[in-house]
Structures are given as structure tokens and as C-alpha cells.
Amino acid sequence: MEKVMVGKGAEIELVLVALAAGGHVLLEDVPGTGKTTLAKALAASVAGLFKRIQFTPDLLPTDLTGLNVYNPKTGEFTFRPGGLFTHILLADEINRATPRTQSGLLECMEERQISIDGQTYSLDPPYFVMATQNPIETQGTFPLPEAQLDRFLMQISVGYPNREGEAEVIQRFLGGTGRGPLESLQAVSSISDWVEIQRLVSSVTVHRDLCIYIADLAAFVRRHENVALGVSPRASLALARAAQAYAVLNGRTFVKPEDIKYLAPFCWPHRLSMRSTIRAEGKAQVIAAALSAVAVPTENFA
């Protein structure tokens, strides 16, 4: 993936952590920073089903989930699957669809299944949603509700490359069809590989002291004077699962406090609701304050 995304090793690792943890990722940044390219690079690197859905105001929930179509020849209804039936889904500009359409993602992201007309269809693992949105342009958009944001394990900002990295991007993507290294990117892992990785993640040891540490961080955030709605128990569990995945990808069978401190700024800020007078930047400050104030557990050698 780094053949395509120059100087974005940390962001790529976070995406892989989310995939290994069985979560989903929300990529929020200004246009042209490589959000869609990052998703395509992941899809090309994993030999699985990949679908891209461009979210627009006229997109319907049935375009995502599918619907039963009447066949006049047989006199029966036939199910026609929608775009959600895949392994890796790119939900491009998710905040341009109406809340009704956005809600079509809730069941599949949380329960890995889709219910239509009383029939439930299971989605093949691993199921991974990467959604993108532009935080600057608000005209014609519909902000994601808290329930939808809570379904994303992480929110990541790709950010601008540095001077050397931007020059390298220009060189790599010049010529040809303009897709650059994406054209030659080959799959280096299979779907079964990631199913096995997710199984390994669930077996990683998380000491009870670290569970208490996460609970203390959550309690600090909920009590903060600038927070209207703090992180939920689902958010605490998501942070622990992300730490397990981070440990696996770094060759460990146990979670360290440093894993939790590193991942909290990506797993929690988008789940917070701030008071009306506080800007969005205050979310990161609240998480930083919690990590600074709450004591990190240490080993009791006795």
C-alpha cells in the first residue's frame, strides 16, 4: 500500500488495525488528500470482493441493501443483492446521502447481516467499511448521527504529505492513465488470511488492570466539563479490541498500556458530543487530558 500512499505508513497501519479488529474506518479530510486512493490500495492488496458506492442525496436504502424483484414469468420474487454484499466497501462521501440511506449501513456494520422483508442475509467475513467525508464543505450534506458514528472503530485524517512526499506523489502518478502505481498493485493477502488474523486478535491477552485503565479513561471523559455526551461502553470495548489488533500486527500476544494511549485519539474523539460553545478541536484536547491525568497501570512484581 505504501507504493501508492507516500509517507503514510502510520495511517495505513491504523487502517489495517481496524480491519484486523473487525471494525470500520471513517476517513475525514479535505478533497484530494488520498482518502479514496487509500481505500483502493487496500482493496487491491487483499484478494477479496471490493465495491465502491458513491453516496448522493438521491441514493435509496434499497440501493445499498438490495430488494426483492417480482418476476412476472415465474410469478415469484427474486432477491437482487445491493452494494453492501461485499468484503471491502468504500462508502464515498457518506455524508452526502440522506439519514434514511445512511441508516441502511447500521445493521450490516454492527451485526454483519442485512434484513429485508423478514429475511436475514449474512455477510461473509471479513466485512470492512471504509467511509469518506469532507469536513469543510457542508452544503448539500447530512451530518452523521451519533449512532452512525459510534459504528466506526476509528476516524482517521490522511493529511497533506510533506514536501518530499508530495514531489514523489507527482512523479509516481504522472503518465499512463493517471492511476499510477494502483495499476500494478497486486494482492499480497487473501480473505482467509484476514479471517485467521481476526481469530488471533480475539485471543490476545488484555490484563484486567488495562480493562480498569480503559474504564477510568472513559469515566474521566464523561465527567469533563466540556463534554455533553461521553464515550459509551461500546467505545471502551472498541478501544480494547483495537489494542488487541495493534498487538497482533506488532507480533505480540498481549496488550501494553502504550497501545491504548496510542489508539485512544483515533478511537474516541468522533464518539464525543461537545457542548455548543466548544469547537470540534476540543475533542482531541479532552482525550489528551484524560491520557495525561489518568494513572497508567504498572506491573506488581510482588
Distance between the termini: 45 Å
| Total of helices | 12
Order of helices and strands: HEHEEHEEEHHEEEHEHEHHEHHEH
User: What ranges have pLDDT less than 50 throughout 5 or more consecutive residues?
Assistant: none
Oligomer state equals single chain
Principal-axis shape equals: globular
CA-atom Rg in angstroms: 20 Å
Strand numbers in spatial order across the main sheet: 3-6-9-1-10
Helix content: 40-55%
Describe the structure.
The chain is of the alpha/beta class. It is built from twelve helices and 13 strands. It has a five-stranded parallel sheet with strand order 3-6-9-1-10, with helices on one face. Strands 2-11 form a two-stranded parallel sheet. The N and C termini lie far apart (45 Å).
Topology of this protein?
Blueprint: H1 9-21, E1 25-28, H2 35-45, E2 46-47, E3 50-54, H3 61-65, E4 66-71, E5 76-81, E6 88-92, H4 99-102, H5 106-111, E7 113-116, E8 119-122, E9 128-133, H6 146-149, E10 154-156, H7 163-173, E11 189-190, H8 191-201, H9 208-223, E12 227-229, H10 233-249, H11 257-267, E13 273-274, H12 282-293
Parallel strand pairs: 1-9, 1-10, 2-11, 3-6, 6-9
Antiparallel strand pairs: 4-5, 7-8, 12-13
Helix pairs in contact: 1-10, 8-10, 9-10, 9-12, 10-11
